[in-house]
């Protein structure tokens, strides 16, 4: 259904052609090439009608000639026409998406056939305005092969033309590509065929036929001029006008000679009356239109552009609406009927679940919230693309199609998966595939094991900010309800996801590594330096804060203790031990406890490896003892005792440094 805003904006259109038709128009994507005065009228009509998007390709700047239409302003002269048009189109209808291609030309787009076709596949309608016949033929050929409706229109002064190719077949009519039509240099009219077959037609019909022939010759002449000169006739001065008119008359005579030669070859052996009739056709062509037609083909007039642009837009909209009428009205589609053509056949519900976004995995509540796309198949809603102008998909409302009962058993909110899309649109493909848009929001229960956090992988039953899907599987099961032999089927989708760890390297691992280095640095400093006590306290507080942060994030009741949490806890214990050692070592150095002689003799070999050679010359000062009660007139024996204690502390300190380093590595593994 439409939103309140859409219903308000498109109220007039809905009253004119109905809700269903407007929904189809809202799903149409248009590709338009060359945004001049005529094209601006086409754009305005389509945008106001309420299409989904329009992509405009134009590499030309706004010029003074573009001021004839009201979509451009004087201050936009010199800007790219597509870019300048974007703001005006958004003001007309902000609900229509406008895409511009200002750095590419049609010739470069069509240079690679494969890339061009892949690009054109994304559009429902292609419109080319005021371009050469060669480019129009090439673009029409690609659209013809892809079954995409192609519209080609030109306007030169009082003269204009529109060519429409809406597919290989449409209501039994075979459409001829524009290249083939102009290559024959003839027009195919029902009345013209009747005339050649000798049937009686009215004088008014005869005049109409001759006028159309005259217009066709003028159009051929202008296209031949464009092919030779690379542009359509454009007058700047009177001398230019005279020169252009002479060139047009010369080209016109060349085409007449070609037509006469072709008709002579086709009418060899015909009677004199047929030859006279053909001669009258040729001569009449030069005089049916005003003799001064070459003076009336310069520039673009607003009223001509409005008429032609309105006609072209109406043809586009009419073609879009036809398919919905066939599917939901002419076929008598019933949303309550099972989507099978034979009632004896079972309903095959093919479910494809595409997970396109993992919104959140709540570790504390074990809830996985995802958004995905759901696809079903309804064989009653199939159509042949060739019969509907190459239309591959349309947008329908969820209440317009059959909906099977699909429920997520382990859903966290116990809501039917289809009911959540009551106000969303579906995309219906020609093959009967139904594509749910926008994505469904699903909440499911998922058991989470955080042992390997943050490098964990989780398997949940049932692109993105934190999780990457690395594997998925599907399992079909049938359960017995034990109630009269009744069974119900169950389809279990399993997805295996792993966490993106980039952010955690910066907020968890790098701080932990820095803290460990600071701890090692504290043990490496001189035992009498009070800075190492301060460093150890800083490390302890940092590790404690990281542990509290992770506990709050992961939840204290989560399944499995993450290894990183265990490691942080072990490092906190080691840091606590170093703090105790630092406090003990400072007090031990100041103490008067005398180390036994045999202990000093036993550790004497370690002094050569762990203590510097000048240790014996170290003298304790008041600064070393830091406000201790040491007497400044200590005796020599007292000094020797303190020096022995210092040696013991330094040896133990170096041993602890090595042991701490080994534990850091061992506990990490």
UniProtKB/TrEMBL annotation:
Region listing for Disordered, in residue ranges: 261-283
TM regions (residue ranges): 506-525, 531-552, 564-584, 647-667
Source organism of this protein record: Dermatophagoides pteronyssinus
Coiled coil start-end: 234-261
Neurotransmitter-gated ion-channel ligand-binding domain: residues covered: 323-479
Keywords: Coiled coil, Membrane, Transmembrane, Transmembrane helix
GO molecular function terms listed in the Swiss-Prot or TrEMBL record: extracellular ligand-gated monoatomic ion channel activity; SUMO activating enzyme activity
Keyword field contains Transmembrane: yes
Domain of life where this protein originates: Eukaryota
PANTHER family, sorted: SUMO-ACTIVATING ENZYME SUBUNIT 1, UBIQUITIN-ACTIVATING ENZYME E1
Compositional bias ranges of the Low complexity kind: 274-283
Family designation: Belongs to the ubiquitin-activating E1 family.
Any one Gene Ontology cellular component term annotated for this protein: membrane
Top-level taxonomy: Eukaryota, Metazoa, Ecdysozoa, Arthropoda, Chelicerata
Protein name, entry field: Neuronal acetylcholine receptor subunit alpha-5-like
GO biological process terms on file: protein sumoylation
């Amino acid at each position: 259904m439409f939103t309140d805003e859409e219903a308000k904006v498109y109220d007039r259109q809905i009253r004119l052609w109905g809700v269903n038709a407007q929904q189809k128009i809202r799903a149409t994507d248009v590709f338009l090439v060359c945004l001049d005065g005529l094209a601006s009228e086409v754009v305005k009509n389509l945008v106001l009608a309420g299409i989904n998007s329009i992509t405009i390709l134009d590499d030309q700047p706004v010029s003074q000639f573009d001021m004839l239409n009201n979509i451009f302003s004087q201050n936009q002269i010199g800007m790219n026409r597509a870019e300048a048009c974007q703001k005006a189109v958004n003001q007309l209808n902000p609900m229509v998406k406008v895409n511009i291609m200002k750095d590419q030309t049609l010739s470069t787009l069509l240079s690679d056939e494969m890339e061009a076709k892949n690009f054109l596949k994304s559009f429902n309608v292609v419109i080319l305005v005021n371009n050469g016949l060669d480019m129009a033929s090439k673009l029409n050929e690609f659209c013809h092969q892809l079954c995409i409706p192609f519209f080609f229109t030109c306007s030169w002064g009082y003269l204009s033309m529109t060519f429409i190719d809406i597919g290989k077949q449409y209501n039994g009519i075979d459409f001829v590509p524009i290249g083939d039509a102009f290559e024959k240099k003839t027009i195919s009219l029902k009345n013209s065929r009747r005339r050649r077959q000798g049937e009686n037609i009215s004088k008014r019909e005869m005049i109409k036929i001759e006028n159309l022939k005259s217009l066709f010759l003028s159009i051929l002449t202008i296209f031949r001029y464009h092919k030779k000169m690379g542009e359509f006739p454009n007058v700047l001065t009177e001398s230019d006008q005279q020169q252009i008119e002479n060139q047009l008359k010369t080209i016109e005579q060349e085409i007449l000679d070609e037509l006469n030669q072709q008709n002579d070859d086709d009418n060899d052996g015909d009677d004199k009356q047929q030859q006279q009739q053909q001669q009258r056709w040729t001569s009449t062509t030069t005089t049916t239109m005003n003799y001064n037609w070459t003076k009336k083909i310069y520039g673009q007039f607003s009223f001509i552009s409005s008429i032609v642009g309105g006609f072209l837009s109406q043809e586009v909209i009419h073609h879009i609406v036809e398919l919905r009428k066939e599917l939901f009205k002419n076929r008598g589609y019933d949303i309550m009927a099972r989507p099978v053509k034979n009632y004896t056949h079972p309903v095959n519900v093919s479910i494809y679940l595409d997970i396109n976004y993992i919104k959140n995995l709540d570790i504390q509540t074990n809830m996985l919230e995802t958004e995905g796309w759901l696809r079903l198949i309804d064989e009653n809603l199939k159509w042949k693309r060739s019969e509907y102008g190459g239309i591959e998909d349309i947008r329908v409302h969820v209440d317009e199609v059959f909906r099977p009962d699909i429920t997520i058993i382990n859903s966290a909110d116990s809501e039917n998966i289809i009911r959540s899309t009551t106000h969303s649109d579906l995309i219906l493909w020609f093959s009967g595939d139904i594509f749910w848009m926008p994505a469904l929001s699903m909440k499911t229960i998922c058991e989470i094991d955080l042992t390997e956090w943050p490098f964990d992988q989780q398997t949940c039953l049932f692109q993105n900010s934190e999780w990457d899907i690395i594997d998925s599987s599907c399992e079909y099961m049938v359960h017995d309800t034990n109630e009269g032999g009744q069974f119900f089927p169950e389809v279990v989708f399993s997805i295996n996801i792993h966490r993106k760890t980039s952010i955690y390297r910066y907020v968890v691992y790098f701080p932990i590594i820095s803290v460990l280095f600071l701890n090692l640095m504290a043990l490496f400093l001189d035992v009498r330096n009070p800075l190492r006590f301060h460093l150890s306290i800083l490390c302890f507080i940092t590790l404690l804060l990281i542990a509290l942060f992770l506990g709050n994030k992961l939840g204290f009741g989560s399944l499995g203790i993450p290894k990183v949490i265990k490691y942080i806890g072990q490092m906190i214990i080691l840091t606590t031990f170093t703090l105790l050692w630092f406090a003990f070592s400072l007090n031990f150095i100041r103490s008067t406890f005398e180390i036994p002689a045999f202990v000093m003799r036993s550790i004497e070999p370690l002094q050569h490896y762990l203590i510097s050679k000048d240790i014996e010359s170290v003298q304790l000062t008041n600064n070393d003892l830091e406000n201790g009660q040491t007497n400044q007139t200590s005796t020599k024996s007292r000094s020797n005792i303190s020096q022995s204690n210092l040696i013991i502390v330094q040896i133990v300190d170096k041993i602890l440094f090595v042991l701490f380093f080994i534990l850091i590595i061992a506990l990490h593994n």
